[in-house]
Amino acid sequence: MKRLLLSTLLPLAFPAWASEPSAQRQQQLSALLDQDCGSCHGMTRKGGLGSPLTMEAMRELGDEALVATILDGRPGTPMPPWKLMLSEADARWLVRRLKGETP
Amino acid sequence: MKTILSAALLLLLGACAPTLRATGDLGLVVERADGRLKMVENTHSTTLAEISGLGDLSHASVVYSRDERFAFVFGRDGGLTKIDMLQARIVGRVMQSGNSIGGAISQDGSLVAVANYTPGGVKVFDSDSLELVADIAAIGADGKSSKVVGLEDAPGNIFAFSLYDAGEIWLLDLKDRSSPKVRKFPHIGNQPYDALITEDGRYYMAGLFGEDGIAMLDLWNPDLGVRRILDHYGRGQEALPVYKMPHLEGWAASGNLAFLPAIGRHEVLVVDMTSWREVGRIAVAGQPVFAMLQPGGRRLWVNFAIPDNGKVQVIDVPSLSVLKTIEPGLAVLHLEFTPRGERVWLSARDSDQVTVWDTETITQVAALPASKPSGIFFTARAHRIGL
After folding, report:
1. Integer angstrom CA distances of residue B173 from A96, B147, B155, B346
2. Residues A44-71: what's their mean pLDDT?
3. Which of B61, B64, B134, B183 is a plausible cystine mate for B382, CB 3.0–4.6 Å?
């Protein structure tokens, strides 16, 4: 019963899980984060031309704001909109990774 | 490890035994994810040694001492590391800031300067001892600390650089190292993001991200101030997204012409250096990052931002048209020509290899394994202004 409840409730509580990127896609996203985001934000995410993306800094910001920043960019800064290359599910997974919530 | 040791040993032995070694055909390949360098030689296209322990090498760059014996490596994490090219080892290292973006060596070779993001400014070190000579905080006219970009060496032991946040160009004069002098040019434009100095050391040019155009300072006539050229150079009305900041380093003249990577658009701009006007655009396969003239100026090699970073295009300069598109691997980050241009080395980050190409036939002649390679820097840079 408990298991049934969990499996029905979880997708509601975390809608992003419904469209979790595939294992292969996660690998691509992880490489993109390290290498391509790393070009501006540093491979250790301590910042560069772009602001720091440390776990502490990311945890201070809401998921929706971060997803929006990834997909739509930040006007007035070099941060481009990535929606041509990333889906919303991709962006949600990246936000979880940035906050240290993925394995 | 064994190969590293034996290579280092060979180099060492070379210094005292029958085979003497010079450094003119040596270079360093940055393995950005591992804080490691591969020492290579470009006569036979081989790897000689590995040097580890350099910290965060994302966006790392290298300059060389005038005798080509030593390399100075600028790491992202603020590390400045001095490498002995004959012994293939680290001979000096300072953590000089929290976050840096590159550097330059002075005309006389006695000083190495580093551009810093955090805290924003320029630090200058003695190239022998790595002792601090000058520490210049980049406080703009707005009173705020600014990230420093586009640090270049200019004739007269001057370093030129730009303040990204404040929109200024500064000249740091170190003719007398005991009393550094700073000359500031404020209001040069919005968000200078990179800069170059022309091969002759005369013009310092900063590309602007926040608006169109290039801010240019004539170092022969600094009293004339900074003027704006190429008003149409930039992101334009639509302000297209830019997936990797273009680099201006490859600027070189072929006759009257120079070439610039467009910002956001899939084009290379052709500039007439006598009038500083745009005289053409060449359609290319993606957003260009480096547009580098082959020594001699006959061909231009261009790499691209994600998602087109698996391609490199070769442009024929006389006809201003794309001659060939090659695919040297995944995520091509940088290219470096041999000193007289018969070969070009290309780093393919996601293929974990560096490939070497014959520039006349545009065919691959060698491949060297390297872990996540980014910048490639040959010692011939020692004798070029701005590199």
Report:
1. 48, 20, 10, 36
2. 93
3. B64
Q: Which residues in chain A touch residue B115, judged by CB atoms under 8 angstroms apart?
A: none
Share above pLDDT 90 across residues of chain A, in percent, rounded to a whole number: 58
Q: Which two tokens stand for residue B287?
A: 């957003």
Least confident of B231-235, B240-244, B265-269, B286-290: B231-235
- CA distances to B115, B152, B336, B339 from B295, rounded to whole Å, are 28, 20, 10, 7
Does B209 contact chain A (CB < 8 Å)? yes
* Domain layout of chain A by residue ranges: 22-98
| CATH number at A22-98 | 1.10.760.10
Chain A: closest CA distance from residue B193 (Å)? 9
Residue B45 reports pLDDT greater than 70? yes
Considering only CB atoms, which chain A residues are within 8 Å of B306? 32, 36, 85
Per-residue confidence band for B210, with pLDDT thresholds at 50, 70 and 90: confident
- Annotate B9-40 with b (16+ C-beta within 10 A) or e (fewer): eebeeeeeeeeebebebbbbbbbbbebbbbbb
Distance CA B183, CA B198 (A): 20
H/E stretch holding B150: strand B148-154
CB within 8 Å of B355: residues ≥ 6 apart: B328, B329, B345, B346, B348, B364, B366, B367, B368
The span from the CA of B49 to the CA of B32, in Å, is: 16
Choice among A16-20, B13-17, B243-247, B253-257 with the minimum mean pLDDT: B13-17
Please state the rounded mean pLDDT for residues A17-27.
84
ipTM value, please give it.
0.78
Asked if B74 is an interface residue toward chain A (Cβ–Cβ < 8 A), one would say no
CA-CA distance, B190 to B262, in Å (whole number)? 17
Please name the residues in contact with B179: beta carbons below 8 A apart, sequence gap of 6 or more.
none
Report d(CA B216, CA B204) in Å as an integer. 6
Q: Do A35 and B101 touch (CB under 8 A)?
A: no
Residue A32 has pLDDT above 80, yes or no: yes
Q: Tokens standing for B78?
A: 């603020």
Choose from B32, B36, B74, B76 for mutation: most chain A CBs within 10 A: B76
Cβ–Cβ under 8 Å, residues B113 and B106: yes
Predicted confidence at residue A14, as pLDDT, reads 46
